[in-house]
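Summary for the steering committee. One of the milestones for this cycle was to obtain a three-dimensional model of the protein with cobalt (II) ion bound, which we needed before selecting residues for the alanine scan. The sequence and ligand used are listed below.
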Amino acid sequence: MLSKYFRNVEKPIPFEGKGSKNPLAFKYYNKEQRVGAKTMSEHLRFSVAYWHSFMGTGSDMFGSASLAREWHKPAAPLDRAKATMEAAFEFFQKLGIDYYCFHDRDIAPEGETFSETCRNLETMVQYAKQLQKDTGVKLLWGTANLFSNPIYSQGAGTSPSAHVMALAGAQVKNALDATKELGGENYVFWGGREGYETLLNTDIRQEQQQMARFLSMAVDYKRAIGFGGQFLIEPKPAEPTKHQYDSDAAATLNFLRQYELLDHFKLNIEANHATLAGHTFEHELAVASAAGKLGSVDANRGDLLLGWDTDQFPTDLYSTTMAMIVILNQNGLGSGGLNFDAKVRRSSTDPLDLFYAHIGGMDSFARGLLIAQRIIDEKVLSAFIAGRYSSFGSGIGAQMMSGKAGLADVEKWVLTQPHPVLPSGRQEMLENMVNDYLQ
Ligand code: XUL
Ligand code: CO
């Protein structure tokens, strides 16, 4: 086992169970434990986000780096990238996590020219391939960073410059090659700068057509190279761009449908993006799932008092339970997983904090899974919901839904009936019942 950067964690984090007081042990996440038809690791498919946990420095708008990472010390960019990757895989192994996710620019530095940048990526992909082989850790998804370089400040696929759109396309091609080479199970598009700041300089229709074409080119290239992973779009309403075109699940589904791309994509729903859009996490999951398009999850949380993407580790059991109910009800995430798109706080300066953060996130989702499975097994909500819509199972309900009854038919029927009686929605009773399971 690799052991250089996290020497004080000598062996993989153990499962010690509920009574344990060891902060470096799992209390609920027990990989091989069966929950319903699958093991916990099969249900949850946890992943580490390379960018936050291994590239993050703790800098913010008001202050410089606060996290002095040993793996960032080598001066030469490629040496630094290799040290970072070794630290990452040591961490994955010691945490006992099965997956990781990256942006092209997380794992490999940009060079002086685009071709040097591509060569750096290829070098680091070969390094990652070896480390994946040595450790058994797999790639959940890859993506291209189309938002940090200032050339993308006015958009990538939606840039007003055709040359920049072409550059972004070339970058995606290379990121797709890298993801395929590493056996990535999915590929994510997050449109960080795909939106607009002001209508004074923007043609929305043109930009949306560009975005659709950009995604179509990726679909064509995926087919050309035989990449079998799932394409995912990650909705987010704002930050960095004020109005993003993929602002929430509903808007993204509509966009994909309008441009005939729906068959090629699913959604990657992020908790903090949902709340920034004015929705709950479970709302976004449920909207995606109802359309058969919930593909993967970026697991994190925001802060109720702060209006930006704080990317905190998930700790709220109510939220993880609600999320797992949606995920279990659609029989899992398929090739997707739960990626911790979350960062330790700026003041959590010890590399050990990365362990505490991930252990907390994994235990929170493991508890959510256990609670959700019981709620589903005992039909706590499903029996009520089925009863609530039962009038559609026969009579006029069935006739309306099957298309047999139109407006004239329903009028005829209504005139023969007494005034409808509407049963209570029982929200408070159901809230109490869910709380009874949250232990
Ligand atoms: C940004 C965000 C990204 C995507 C991948 O808010 O969530 O890290 O997950 O580009
Ligand atoms: Co994300």
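Key point for the committee: Residues 34-377 form a domain with the TIM Barrel fold (CATH 3.20.20.150).
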